[in-house]
């Protein structure tokens, strides 16, 4: 029989097995656009439970506490679904001190039902299918066998068999000749549990695959440990072909963390030093300097440490209502975050594509808002489920507006009326959000065949909402062509948000090109500062 201590070992083993294979799962991403990868999201979700397994002899108690930690730590759609599987498992094991194989399968069936209820339009060929069929076949198997050391290995066999069939259920998987990443993650979890059950608890293979923090813990660092205070970055526009090797050697004598890229035309430079003046003085002998950026890292450390201590102290405090409404929004990019603050957003949660915040991240922001009702804007499809989970974890009234982009959020906020009823605001804001077409431009991270588009790594992709509509080699040609597909006679406003890798001059040039072609619309250029996407363009 499996007791609480053994079940805790099984959970740790499952989390470590998933950690050791998370890159394998991430590489199954069929879409050539960076996203909140399935492997990372599932690993971070389950590690939130395995990092602090309850030391209790009761399997029901361990399952309940693990489910609670999984829910708060859930990230992305795959992480939320995983947390719901364990929430159902905890329900099935409630009150049990021990369990056998048959009881585990029955609890897994409860988990499948709970997970399916959490997803509005569940798709077959995903982790949901793999878990459901595994549980169904497991129930049949347990009609004759209940021993856990026989049942769990058989569940692993069933899971792998149905995983192999997922490409036949989802055309996008078949086109890329891969299986579902979430389903494979489920297999790794079961297989990790099986190994612990047999006395072979799996350990994390690499030190950096232990518990991962959402952000660096600056309060644990000593500012005096920062040997070189100034992070110095700039670009040299070369004026000759002088060898830059001596420059690199010079930088290494007066600093550390030296990173240089010399393509013969420019030298991109990064160094930590106590003498930025000397660095610039030497650099200018190679050419003219642009994009100079010097940050005092000791001062930054102090500010971040103070902020972290303040945030940690208030993390579990639910602010007393001082107003009827408050707003929480997820944002990636300093420019976007500043803009949201101008629209009276109370709390901005850092996150978005490639960095999905956890349910707990969003929950803390909700609890920090001194309002009775808090409107939450996820601004990414892969964050909506995590935002929805906060409703069950706070005494505040949470209304999740299912926005998938920041431009949708901004349009919605323009319709917010502090004097109107909750339902009136919700309807007006979502109507405004749906009136925005969001375009985005980003480089492809891998070769892929999506529909009729044969994509090569490094190609520039133009997306309308989340659908690839343009593939080009040139960034600005792609942006112009993409915008031309969405701007019509009825278009009134076009807002060009340029990312951290695009200059304002480049964005203004794109605006001028579009204005010359579609002069009837009003154009605005905003520094969004977003990663991943060179341009995000809102068409209204």
Sum up the structure in keywords.
540 residues; alpha/beta; Serine Threonine Protein Phosphatase 5, Tetratricopeptide repeat; Alpha-Beta Plaits; Rossmann fold; 20 helices; 46% helix; globular
Fourth-tier CATH superfamily name of the largest domain: DhaL domain
Number of helical stretches of at least 4 residues: 20
Per DSSP E runs of 2 or more residues, the count of β-strands stands at 16
CATH architecture of the largest domain: Alpha Horseshoe
For the record, the CATH class of the largest domain is Mainly Alpha
Which band does the percent of strand residues land in? 15-25%
What structural category do the secondary elements indicate? alpha/beta
Structure, explained:
This protein folds into 4 domains: 4-206, DhaL domain (Serine Threonine Protein Phosphatase 5, Tetratricopeptide repeat, Alpha Horseshoe); 227-297, Alpha-Beta Plaits (2-Layer Sandwich), CATH 3.30.70; 313-434, Rossmann fold; 437-539, Hypothetical Protein Tm841, Chain: A,domain 3. Helix content is 46%, strand content 19%. It has helices at residues 4-20, 22-26, 38-50, 59-73, 76-93, 101-118, 127-141, 148-164, 171-176, 181-197, 245-254, 276-283, 297-313, 334-342, 359-368, 384-389, 406-413, 422-434, 475-486, 504-517, and strands at 230-238, 255-262, 266-273, 287-296, 323-331, 347-350, 371-377, 397-400, 437-443, 448-450, 453-455, 460-464, 467-472, 493-498, 522-527, 535-539. A 6-stranded mixed beta sheet has the order 13-12-9-16-14-15, with helices on one face. Strands 2-3-1-4 form a 4-stranded antiparallel beta sheet. Strands 6-5-7-8 form a 4-stranded parallel beta sheet, sandwiched between helices. Strand 12 and strand 13 form a beta hairpin. Helix 1 runs antiparallel to helix 3 (38-50), helix 1 (4-20) packs across helix 10 (181-197) and helix 17 (406-413) packs across helix 18. The termini are far apart. Residues 207-224 have low confidence and may be disordered.
